[in-house]
Every structure is written in structure tokens, then in C-alpha cells.
Amino acid sequence: xxxxxxxxxxxxxxxxxxxxGPVSGGLRTALREWGRGYRAAGHHPVLxxxxxxxxxxxxxxxxxxxxxxxxIPGTGGYRAIVSRRHVRRWLGExxxxxxxxxxxxxxxxxxxxxxxxxxxxxxxxxxRLDSLLRLYADTWLPAASGRAIPVAxxxxxxxxxxxxxxxxxxxxxxxxxxxxxxxxxxRVPLGVDLELFHSSRYDAALRGRLASPGELLVVQCTRLHTxxxxxxxxxxxxxxxxxxxxxxxxxxxxxxxxxxLEAAAQGLPIRFAGFGHDRAELARLLATADVLxxxxxxxxxxxxxxxxxxxxxPVVAPGDGALGEVVGDAGVVVRGQHDVVADGEAxxxxxxxxxxxxxxxxxxxxxxxxxxxxWSTSVQAMLRTHGLSIDxxxx
Length: 395
Fold this sequence. Notes:
The protein is an alpha/beta fold. It has 2 domains: 12-191 and 374-385, Rossmann fold, CATH 3.40.50.2000; 199-370, Glycogen Phosphorylase B (Rossmann fold), CATH 3.40.50.2000. It is 39% helix and 17% strand. The chain has helices at 26-40, 84-94, 109-116, 129-140, 148-162, 171-178, 204-210, 232-242, 258-264, 279-288, 303-310, 323-327, 340-355, 359-370, 375-385, and strands at 12-17, 44-51, 55-59, 62-68, 98-102, 120-124, 165-168, 185-187, 216-221, 247-252, 270-272, 291-293, 315-318, 331-334. An 8-stranded mixed beta sheet has the order 3-4-2-1-5-6-7-8, with helices on both faces. Helix 1 links the parallel strand 1 (12-17) and strand 2. The relative contact order is 0.13.
């Protein structure tokens, strides 16, 4: 063991996660930034994630071990670790001082492993289960919608009892636990790279390729999956065009719905850019846009929205999830509608509200909101959650 129970000295923090995208995504970003921060503070992070093949590499955010794992159907290529044997072997070899789990599914047993050995355990809740189950039930199994909340409650109680601490990122994310009387909660907001994501990334040449002079340039950056409601940008652009408003959109993201979305967007000024490996390229896109649509109704934080704000780009977001907490006064929160036409009109209204504001004022407000969130603050909060020292200032 590297550190004692009081957090003195460097600690080996073994982190485990499922559903980590190969290219981008909020979870991948958080794992990378927290790992860098742990290393800067003098600790030793190790990340165990699923992949197609086994590997063991050193990165700037710590050691990364991949476990051969199957692709989960219908997720757009995401994998989950199903073999406990491989993970048990690694845990036995690594002898962690703390474990940090980013999964509700196949990795929950790690909490019992840790407790039996006196190892501190933290689970980070990246989704609000009651809202997610209800969304899927309403979409595919309306008759089961009433059972979604009791099922979520039972699973949440078990998870909270299994771990020493449950980390949530927003007040909205904590609600499904607080109403059950769960007390071992710790709120740790995510952060944003305020240097990479900055209004100085604005690219006039890129703007000229994506939109004509006078057009409102809208970007949507999200995984193209059911719970994200990625069709919202299509209906919003349709609504704007029907009102005679000149607008164009770029959809940055990929997933199982991409084909159907591209078909639905035929004839509309909407480009599908996929997910790129270059974060600087994403920053240029966000800084060049006039406004971002953050469509997801069950987001527990909304990192893409925060990155847009850091670029000086305001956000239109639904009021269902946590995005309103992140966006604050630097955007417009709209009430989502069950009817797709009405939903498109609502988001179009939000886009026009932002477009009516003086560009300099709306960009300044967006940047100021983003500056409330830093990875330094987030890392330090996570280290305190683990009961570990912060020996080095985290940048």
C-alpha cells in the first residue's frame, strides 16, 4: 500500500469505467482530466477500461489498462467489462489504496471487493437513473413507465449502500438519492479547459465554409443516441426556416441514430461532422458557432455545453435535466414538448432569443459562466472525497 488511511503520502487510485468512447465524450474527458490532476498532486492513478484487446500503457493521465470486452448492442460501439476474473487479477496485483468506479452495471461488485479489504471506495454517478429509465419506458414500453421509479430507487439504494461515497455533479443529479435519504453524497462539478476552449479559437475561414453571410450558425454536439434526443436540432432548423430565418447547423457527434438523422435532415442546411480526435478542432467549431443546442433531457451535467460557454458561445438547453444549472444566465432554457413540431418551435424560440442579444454581450456572459468551473477545483474536490492530500497545485 502506498498511503495510509489518513491520506498521507501518495496513493494508488485505481479507477474503473465502462462505456468509455474511443474518441470523445464527457466521461472520457473527465477521466483524463481527473487523472492528470491526481498525477500533478503526487498520486498514482491507474485506469481500467474495456477495449477490443488487452493493453497496458502509460499516459499523461496515468497508467491505462484495457480489458478485452464485448461491444454492447445498440450503443454505437460502447463496450462493458463482463469478466470479473481479469479485473480481480489486476486489483490483486495493483493493491489500490482507493478505488473509483464510473459504472452502475457490471462493475458494482468492486465495492464489495474494496470493503472486504478495507480499501476506500467512491462511485461517480454519471446518469440519473430514475429519469433515464422513465425516458426509455416512455419511448419503448409505455405500460412499464410506472415501474421505472421503483426499480431505480431499489438500484440506487443498493449502490449507495455498497460504496463509501457517491459522487454527483449537480443538484439535479443528487435528487434521486436525497429523496431516498442517502447521506453519503458528495457534489463534485466537472470542469473545462479554459485555455483550449476560448473565444480566440474563432475561425473566420471555417465560418465561411459552414454558413453563408447573415446565417445563424447552430452547432449541436452530442452522442447520437435515443436518450440525447439528437433530432431536436433538425426540428429547430425546420422551424427557423419556416419563419423565414436564415440558419445552418453542424451536428458534431456519432452514434447509432446517425443514419436516420441524416435521412431526416435531407434537403436542410445541416452538416454531420462526426466526432473528431482533435479537441482543438472541436474548440474552433464551438467558438465559431453563434449558439449551441444541448438537446439531452436527462444530462447530469453537460460538458459539451460548458465547453461551448468557455468559447463564448451561448447555449439553448431543455429544462428537464441539469443543463440549466450549468448554463445559468448564459443561455436560454426551454420547456421540451412531447410533440416534435412543438418541440422544434420551442428550441427555435430559444435560438432567436439568443440571436436578438448583442453578440459581444452574449459571448461575454457565456465566458464568465464557464469561468465558474475549472478542472483544478474539480480535481481538488475529488481528492478530498478520497481523503487524499493535495501536495501540488493542480493547473
